[in-house]
Protein 1
Amino acid sequence: MIRSALMTPAATLDDQGRPIADSAAGARSGGATPMAAGAGFVRPQQAMDPGLVYDAGEKDYVELLCTMNYTAAQIGVFVPGFAGCTATLPGGGLNYPSFVADLSDGAGARVLARTVTKVSEGPETYTAKVVAPDHLVEVSVTPATLEFAGHRNEMKSYSVVFRSKKRPAAGMAQQFGEIVWESNVHRLRSPVAFIWD
């Protein structure tokens, strides 16, 4: 929950209004990608009141470890008494405030789901906005609007469909975008990495 509150309101521009620089890429860089800068610069004031958070608990992380083929003995180091994997997550299925859309198989669509929890008071309506390399990928969010009655801990789920239109040029197998949920009070941004490897 804390990770989400720090990530989703983070800024992708520096204090001069320029994209965060990628010092490893040097002057040729047009700015840091989420692979270099993560979600961006933490904005403490906004992190104290993010509006919504993505929450993942112990069960979610255990399922992630199972998905990554950790053994019961290995997981037992972190989860005493762990008996064995009973469920796994689909790739990218951890309820996390970022997305990785692996489009490398080139067939069909990739669907990822997320659940957000309201942590602020008062009714709010959030609308989704997608920023993506439109010539390469089509992204749709369902539902595109989330309405909250105003109760803390109210939860809503949504799904995102990522559909590759074509492969990027050689050497450009990673592209980036974002999904933004915005109300009249709060703005949450989730970085998206599109991968065609």
Note: The mean pLDDT is 88.
Protein 2
Amino acid sequence: MSRPVARAIGSLSRRTFITSRTARQQEVPQSHFDFFPQTYPQGPPPHATFTPDLKQLRKEFLQLQAKAHPDLAPASQKRHAEALSARINEAYKTLQDPLKRAQYLLSQHGIDVDDESAKLSESELLMEVMEAREAVEEAENEEDLIDIRAENSERIDKSVAILSEAFAQEEMDKAAREAIKLRYWMNIEESIQGWEKGKGGGIIHH
């Protein structure tokens, strides 16, 4: 376990909490990856693969949350414990999702593709997105969605594979373009899920 995590979580498990703002900044991990040293023993990509062992990530997350639970903190340190617990939650939710993970990694390199203003101008891609969106909206039953979902799952897998290669080779421009593509495909998946929940096709941003 990395020293920042060991110190922060160790203090929680002993129910002792840091009161100095400076000390807190030194103790609390600064990167999402720092919270999960067993999952990322070598650190983030390119030192590790883009897709982590999700079972190990989940296991480590549950262990951290058990040790850092705010109920273990004395009243005077409740807010600090809640903040640390929230950081752990945020780190886990980010790293277990391929799109959020890619966006976070890119943000660590000063590249922001996290909002809808980040778009691609490739007409062929946009046409494919529009056709997929229309297919979901026109689906009449769940059977109609089987092929649509299978095709979109292939798109997602392809984007994740390209992202894995791009981050491994530290090709950030390539990773940024593919992260934007992945956002389109994930939006289509959300649209499919929305249809299944009786909400009709979800909104797919362009």
Note: The radius of gyration is 20 Å.
Protein 3
Amino acid sequence: MNVPAEIFAILLKGVLEKAAEKGKKLQVGEKWEKIREKFSAVWIADGSTLEQIRKNMKISKEEKSKLGGKIMMVVEAFTQRPVTLWYTENDKSNDKIWCEELAAKLPENGLILVDMGFFSFVWFDLLTEAKKFFLTRFRAGTSYKTKQVLSQGSHYRDEIIIMGNYRSNPCKHPVRLVSVLWGTIWYQYLTNVLSPEQL
């Protein structure tokens, strides 16, 4: 029996949400407990194109089967327990199509870890105004001005910035840019958690 992918995604989403409601709080390592205590939830969201599964299974392109579509999975960061998922038949869609759903689902004071597919000033402002938090990689080439340097050394820099100073729609709220030198490469991370004591 073949179940259409969209129906399967709806059923799986329902099962995952019921399991999350019934699931008890699992223990996490001591070093992570301090982080978890500071947020109502700590989630990771990531999207995948299901067509890649078809390629990995070496299903012939001549077959008239539909493309797999795209799925967005949200899991608890410390337990990897699924929280929810979304599905679209459009395998070319960008992760940003789920920004509003993700912002609505994340509880107040929750933290979501996402990749750069969610990099959007509008979404960052939406989360900040709802008292919800994000952590993502910083997109190279994004214009910004430093508002305040919180701390710095030879291998790190922690600063509050204002993004989009050359855009007609700048980010309305300040964000925090943390840069870390690992080997010879600087890695940069962006969050709206402005206090180093919180994150």
Note: Strands lie at 42-49, 70-76, 82-88, 111-113, 133-137, 144-152, 156-163, 175-182, 185-191.
